Amino acid sequence: MKLVRKELSEDCWELILNRLAIDDFNYLQSPSLVCKLFLSITDRLRLKLGVSNRLFYSDNCEGLFRALQRFTNLKEFELRVPFFGDKADVNYPIRRITSPLLDLQSIYLTCLLLKTFLKLGSTMKNLKILRCCLLECLRNHHLVAIADALPWLEELDIHFSCYYWSTEWDSNSRSAKYLITDAGIEVMSRKLRGLRKIDITGQVGCSDRSLIALSSNCVLLNEIRCGLCKVTEHGICFVLRHSRNLICFKVGSCYSSPDNSFTFENSMIYATSLRDLALDPHGNYDQLICSIATAGIQLEKIVLYDDSGLSLHGLSTFLCACPSLTHLMLGSIKILTDNYMRDLCRYLPNLVSITIDGCSNLTTATFFILAKECPVLSEIEMPHINLHVEDDFDMDLERNYRIRSLDLSCARVNNKFLKKVGVVCPNLQTLDVSGLYRLTEGIEDILKCCSQMKHLTVDRTREIVILLEQFKTRCIKIEHHLNLEERI
């Protein structure tokens, strides 16, 4: 009897290849070379392309050219941290992505030429998102060139790594010509009236003037990130009053203002759309969070960093008034204890994600409290958490089947604790245990208990490599934070 071979349908192959693209679009590169059917499917699926450093060099430029020819439906293009050599052609990727065959909506650049923006503006009328991050050479005239060439931009990210700038720079000194300053932001804001999101984090030449200009000229803004800028309570409150569409406001530390007409108490009532806030008001935390509670703002995400001016009563009052919180970050809140965290959990019925870092009076007992008391919690980050010498884990432990992600990097724990983690969180899919390379027994226990593990971050040692061999059939994506194999 002759066997009839049946081919999988195109829909089935699309489902299979789409699974490859979930973690990384680069996994579609090889299948696209197999046959025309796979090329057609991967072309539909691949919407993002990241350029590696080697493609800047003359001998490898054609690799980028072929990739751009193969994937014609790209919407995002990333050109990250190139390390240029003598033969590097930094203009080549720009020339290629400005091809009329591409219709990009988002571009990430880490090299900068004024001509770049002219080319982008002339060919990419649907470009909505531009990220020019970590650029040491970004100046006011570049910012104006961006606004002139791309007046339809909706998202602009020019955040600057604090690694590059010096605190000695002053926007009023000669060094201002090497910075993005208020003057550049003011001109840019008048030209980009449709801007919805902007990130100027680390631009130390920007102050309240920048916030006022953005809030006044870009009325559609729903996200502002301006950490490490020289902003005060006055500029922040101006934004709260005038940016009625503001959803996300990431400020970080801010300075007090002598102007008593603009305060958190009389400004927060205008920020009715605010859902995501990161703000360190230097000694006025109770004033800030109580103004949020009084205004009835239903925050979903908040970062509380440093307990200067924060009281336990103020924190309880705030959390009680914001049952809508889904994401909470607590950093260096030394007034917190395990027992107090147990009390706070009753105000967190909708908490999905929590990060606890630098809270020196909290121990690993808090982990089990969170797992037991927060019914919908799925992500926990507790790097650097301490195992108290008296912790014996005799407390009632309950399994939490919702917890999917856990970060215990550099935690001071033992194998016994890690084994309990595996028992309590059987459905873990993502785990970071970097810095715990000596606890191979505990890591092994977690992997045995958590059959759905997909991502594991761990330091590479000989013991860890041997351990992971027994789990190689589980298709766990391993990321090595540090390679310590030769040092131990």
From TrEMBL:
It comes from the Eukaryota. Gene3D superfamilies: Ribonuclease Inhibitor. GO terms for cellular component: SCF ubiquitin ligase complex. GO terms for biological process: SCF-dependent proteasomal ubiquitin-dependent protein catabolic process. PANTHER family: F-BOX_LRR-REPEAT PROTEIN 2, PARTNER OF PAIRED, ISOFORM B-RELATED. This is F-box domain-containing protein. The lineage of its organism: Eukaryota, Viridiplantae, Streptophyta, Embryophyta, Tracheophyta.
